[in-house]
Amino acid sequence: MDPTFDASIYVRAPIINIANGVTLANALVAACPEAAPENVAKACTKLKAAGEAGQKALTARRRENGALSEDDVRVLDREADGSFGALRMRLIATSMLPETRFPQARRAGELVQELFGDDGLSFLTTEYAAQNTVMASIVAHIEEAGLKPEIDALAGPEFLEQIGNVLPRYDAMVKDKLQREAAATSNLATYVRAIQSAIVNYATKVAAMVDEDEPETVEAVRKALRPLDAHREASARRAQGSAKGEATSDATAAPPATGAGAHGAGEPTAPV
C-alpha cells in the first residue's frame, strides 16, 4: 500500500450544506472511474440519486419561499415602519409647540420617551421577528397603561387605528416566515445527511480500489476522489478568511444603520 495515500481523510463525512453537497456529489459522480468495479459503480449510482434528490428538495424550497413574496413582505414592513414612525413624529411635533400656549406639548414629549425610549425607531432596522416583538411590546404597554385616550387626543385616533390594523398582519407574516424556514431547514437536513452518507459509502469503496501491487491504482483513486480534496481545501480557506475577518472587524466595521425601514442583511443560515 502506498504510504502517501491516506484513505481515512476520504471516508469521513464532509461538512456540507445542501447547495455545496449537491455540487460535491455531482463532481464525484463525474469523476467516477469508467472501468470501476461493480460495487463502486453501484455506490456511484446511489450517490447520484442522493445528489438529484437534494437538488429537487432545494428547488422545492426556493419555490415554497417564493410563495411568500419578498416584495409583499417588504411592502408590509414599510407599512409597519411608517405607522410607528408616523405616531412618533406626530407626538414629537406636538411636543415642539410652546408649552405656555399648548400645555399638552409637555405630555406629548413624555409619551415619546415612554413609548420609544432613547433608541427611538432603531428597532425598525432589526430583523423582522425582533421588530415584531418590539412593536407588540409598545402596543401592549399602551393598552396596559390605558394610554389610548391620551394618544388619540394628542395625535388623532387614526394613528393607533392604523397600528392596530398592521400589527396583526405583520405578526402573521413573521410566524409564517419562521414556520416555513423551520420546516425547510428540517427537511433539507435530511437530504444533507443522505448525501453525506452516500459520499462516505462511495469514497470508502473507491479507496478500497488501491492495490499495493499496482501503484497506478493510487493515482486513479486520487483522481476519482479529487473533488473531496477540493471541497476540503475550499472549506479551510473559508474558515481562515472568516477568522481574519473576525480579527479585523472591530477596526473596520461600519456603524449600524439608524434610519427607519432598513433591515439587516438577512437571517443567518444554517448549514443545510
Q: How would you describe what is shown here?
A:
The chain is an all-alpha fold and 272 residues long. 72% of the residues lie in helices and 0% in strands. It contains eight helices and no strands. The C terminus is likely disordered.
Helix content: over 70%
| Strand percentage | under 5%
Poorly predicted regions = 248-262, 264-272
Q: How can the largest sheet be summarized?
A: none
- Rough shape? rod-shaped
The number of distinct helices, counting runs of at least 4 residues, comes to 8
Arithmetic mean of pLDDT: 85
Roughly how many Å apart are the termini? 37 Å
Number of strands: 0
| SSE run | HHHHHHHH
Structural Rg: 29 Å
Concise overview:
With 272 residues, the chain is mainly alpha-helical. 72% of the residues lie in helices and 0% in strands. Helix 1 packs parallel to helix 7 (157-207) and helix 3 packs antiparallel against helix 4 (104-116).
Give the helices and strands, then pairings.
Layout: H1 18-30, H2 38-67, H3 70-95, H4 104-116, H5 128-144, H6 148-155, H7 157-207, H8 216-252
Main features:
272 residues; 72% helix; mainly alpha; disordered C terminus; single chain
